[in-house]
Amino acid sequence: MSAPALGLPRLHLRRTDSTNERARELAAAGAPHGTLVTAAEQSAGRGRQGRTWSAPAGSSLLMSLVLAPPTRLLPLAAAVAVCDAVDAAPGAELRPAAQIKWPNDVVFPKATGLAKLAGILIEARPQESWAVLGIGLNVAVGLDQLPEELRDTAATLGLDREAVEPLLEALLAALSRRLAEPAEATLAAWERRDALTGRRVRWSPPASGGAAEGEGVARGIDGDGRLVVALDGGGQTALGSGEVHLQPLG
Q: The CATH number of the domain where 57 resides is what?
């Protein structure tokens, strides 16, 4: 028996505070696996560490998907699926290949660092066997439309607004494929997209606790999706939570 299609049923909103918030409400009320919430505009889109997601109305793919139950490597599979859809979008030959900055950003490399194209936020209720996968992808965003402090670190596909819906369809198809593949395939695909390997990183623990502050050189991920870092003093550590900041090489 085939798995239920992703994206059905679908709730599309002209404007909402957060698609993740709407999808969480639906999941808590018993919405089936594959339920999709999309919006043309968010007033309070959320990212990790309490950040907000900013995008002019109609310019981004804003979606949240109910997955019941979620797969073990959902964060990795989701990021790879976003890269798959981005690299298949019109104009791909004129853009660098999409990469993944652990743990949840899809980026384009540029001379001054990494520019964020998409963000992923997963909010789970393990005891109820569901998770909400939220994705925000800059499709038709003009960087000059973003807050000034975001312009140097943001990226966009630079497509027309009419491209948002086809990209959604491509992303749902990519997610279906990636969520069904073996863990080994997901890990291998993620590693090919890894934007951090060989770069110096530093990290600090979240407010709820985690690995102590430190820095070193990123060495990929382990089988559980944790970031492996070679420490300056010798040895290595694996980070499963916390915030990772890029340090210049040199």
A: 3.30.930.10
Q: Are 238 and 227 in contact (CB under 8 A)?
A: yes
- Record the tokens describing residue 163, joined without a space: 């491209």
pLDDT digits (tens, 9 = 90+) for 3-33: 668 999 999 999 999 999 999 999 999 999 9
Does one domain contain both 98 and 21? Answer: yes
In a domain, 84, yes or no: yes
CA separation for the pair 225, 221 (Å, rounded):
5
Note whether 177 and 214 are same-domain residues: no
Question: How far is it, in rounded angstroms, from Cα 93 to Cα 88?
Answer: 9
74 in Cβ contact with 179 (< 8 Å): yes
Which whole-number Å values give the CA distances from 122 to 39, 163, 168, in the listed order?
17, 25, 18
Question: Exposed (0-12), middle (13-18) or buried (19+): which is 36, by Cβ within 10 Å?
Answer: buried
Tell me how far apart the alpha carbons of residues 35 and 5 are, in angstroms, rounded to a whole number: 9
Q: What share of the chain is helix, strand, coil (3-state, %, to 5)?
A: 30, 30, 40
Q: Looking at the structure, do residues 145 and 42 belong to the same domain, yes or no?
A: yes
Q: Please indicate, yes or no, whether residues 111 and 138 belong to a single structural domain of this protein.
A: yes
pLDDT band at 250, cuts 50/70/90? very low
Q: Do 217 and 198 form a contact (C-beta atoms < 8 A)? A: yes
